[in-house]
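step 4 of 6: structure.
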Amino acid sequence: EPEVTQTPSHQVTQMGQEVILRCVPISNHLYFYWYRQILGQKVEFLVSFYNNEISEKSEIFDDQFSVERPDGSNFTLKIRSTKLEDSAMYFCASSEGPGREYGYTFGSGTRLTVV
Amino acid sequence: QKEVEQNSGPLSVPEGAIASLNCTYSDRVSQSFFWYRQYSGKSPELIMSIYSNGDKEDGRFTAQLNKASQYVSLLIRDSQPSDSATYLCAAYGQNFVFGPGTRLSVLP
């Protein structure tokens, strides 16, 4: 069964450093998303991406964050100047069509720990 | 009102029983509804979706939607210990909004 692949599975970084989280969505999917889940809390929407541009973003997704689809397969989330409170599990997701009709397929996540 | 609300649990049921998970939502997220299952430390897995009032069955799972009451539920028949997980209700407004999840424990 097709999967959304995320790398690395675990990333430890020092406060103030930049990190790039990588995702390979399912190949025929057109809509891409990033969510995060702080330990013990709910899954929170960060950003959606379609047709090579951001379609929606949450209040969490401020200037510290950016997304990119550098080629036909990868979808990345960059976090600049990381803070302790950025420590969370970051999930990439993709869908074949609009999420309201298709639902999302989530990757296995990247656990980001900022120390 | 928060957009999607769920009882955090834990909900404990004996093996073989019916587990009933509930979710309420606000007007801002009312297009379509999804149930996800999340094992500890893992990513959410889609169980099923529902868009119209009434019941929708898929194997041991039945989703129920009542738009007038802004209420969605998930019934799990013949619960198994492997069903023990956190169940996330997600509602679609402009994007998916997840509830906090209900932790289900199925006791052998």
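step 5 of 6: annotate
 - The two ends of chain B are 37 Å apart (CA to CA).
 - Chain B touches chain A through 20 residues (CB under 8 Å).
step 6 of 6: archive
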